[in-house]
């Protein structure tokens, strides 16, 4: 015999029935909510892992692109350094060529100056030899003059010391006329000798000045060469030091950028992991709340509204009338607490119409109205 309590408050589950002519509906199976929650969590974890793998793959791709970019920048910097070194070598070669040209010019000037000085020395030597020759001729002429003067004095005034001294002191006009060409020659030779000695003194002074000037120029040239070499070495060292400093600064900057990117990647991973965890927790909380609500709703779903209660009462009256009148009971009575679907209510209303006895049908119609 049918017991309503079996279907209302426990016992045999209504899901075991597969067909109900009074209220046809699909059998409601029990749902393992925790299994569904676990399955959803597993699916979310799989999706999260796939997303994390995709993100990791994209990060690796970006990192490889960054590494390639860094390698390209390093290659460009090395090429730039090679070009700078080549330019420095070319500058050094040009400077050495300039120094060689200056040395060649200075050597040529020295050769020209030496040849000029040699010619001047040769000329001075010739002038000196000529002056010596003139001096010797002058001495000879002076001796001849002295001899001629003695001869003229002795011939004019006779012998004797008084007359000879007078003749030597005051010679006559003939004597002056006789020695005049010799006097002019003597004066000219004397002047030439004086001028030659003055010229030689000036030449010696000029040679000393030229030597001092050449020494000073050589000293200045050596100082300029030393300064140029020192300046060139300092410029090369300064450039190398500056390049090393720039390289160190660039390496530090790259390390800082890599560290920042690593920190950002770690923070992004932590943030994504935290977001996934929060999302999982929020989803778990939503499912828990939904499960509690479903549990609460199942616990209180036997509390029907007034319309449901009237429909239940009318359908029960119809079934009772059928059972009382002896009609064929080809269906089970409706489940009292399961009127959550409108089509079920319509099905119950349609199936609950009485058949056979007119009195019972009228009564049921009056009750339904």
Automatic annotation (TrEMBL):
Composition-biased stretches (Basic and acidic residues): 14-30, 71-124
Residue ranges of coiled coil: 203-275
Top-rank taxon: Eukaryota
Keywords for the protein's UniProt record, in alphabetical order: Coiled coil
Location of the region described as Disordered in the Swiss-Prot/TrEMBL record: 1-30, 67-124, 347-369
Compositional bias of kind Low complexity: 358-369
Protein name: Uncharacterized protein
Organism: Guillardia theta (strain CCMP2712) (Cryptophyte)
């Amino acid at each position: 015999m049918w017991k309503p309590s079996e279907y209302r408050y426990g016992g045999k589950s209504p899901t075991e029935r597969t067909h109900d002519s009074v209220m046809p509906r699909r059998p409601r199976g029990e749902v393992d909510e925790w299994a569904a929650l676990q399955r959803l969590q597993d699916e979310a974890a799989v999706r999260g892992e796939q997303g994390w793998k995709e993100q990791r793959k994209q990060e690796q791709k970006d990192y490889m692109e960054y590494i390639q970019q860094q390698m390209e920048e390093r290659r460009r910097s090395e090429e730039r350094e090679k070009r700078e070194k080549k330019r420095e070598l070319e500058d050094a070669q040009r400077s050495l060529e300039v120094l060689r040209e200056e040395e060649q010019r200075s050597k040529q000037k020295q050769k020209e100056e030496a040849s000029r000085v040699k010619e001047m020395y040769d000329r001075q030597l010739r002038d000196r030899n000529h002056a010596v020759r003139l001096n010797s001729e002058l001495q000879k002429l002076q001796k001849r003059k002295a001899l001629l003067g003695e001869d003229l004095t002795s011939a004019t005034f006779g012998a004797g010391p008084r007359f000879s001294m007078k003749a030597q002191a005051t010679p006559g006009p003939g004597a002056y006329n006789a020695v005049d060409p010799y006097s002019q020659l003597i004066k000219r030779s004397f002047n030439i000798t004086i001028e030659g000695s003055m010229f030689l003194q000036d030449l010696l002074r000029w040679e000393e000045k030229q030597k001092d000037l050449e020494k000073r120029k050589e000293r200045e040239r050596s100082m300029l060469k030393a300064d140029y070499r020192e300046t060139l070495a300092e410029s090369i060292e300064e450039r190398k030091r500056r390049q090393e400093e720039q390289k160190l600064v660039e390496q530090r900057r790259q390390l800082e950028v890599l560290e920042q990117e690593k920190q950002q990647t770690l923070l992004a991973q932590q943030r994504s992991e935290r977001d996934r965890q929060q999302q999982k927790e929020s989803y778990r909380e939503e499912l828990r709340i939904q499960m509690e609500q479903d549990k609460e709703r199942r616990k209180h779903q036997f509390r029907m509204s007034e319309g449901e209660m009237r429909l239940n009462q009318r359908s029960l009256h119809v079934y009772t009338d059928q059972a009382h009148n002896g009609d064929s009971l080809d269906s089970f009575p409706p489940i009292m607490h399961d009127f959550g679907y409108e089509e079920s209510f319509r099905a119950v209303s349609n199936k609950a119409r009485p058949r056979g006895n007119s009195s019972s049908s009228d009564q049921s119609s009056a009750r339904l109205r």
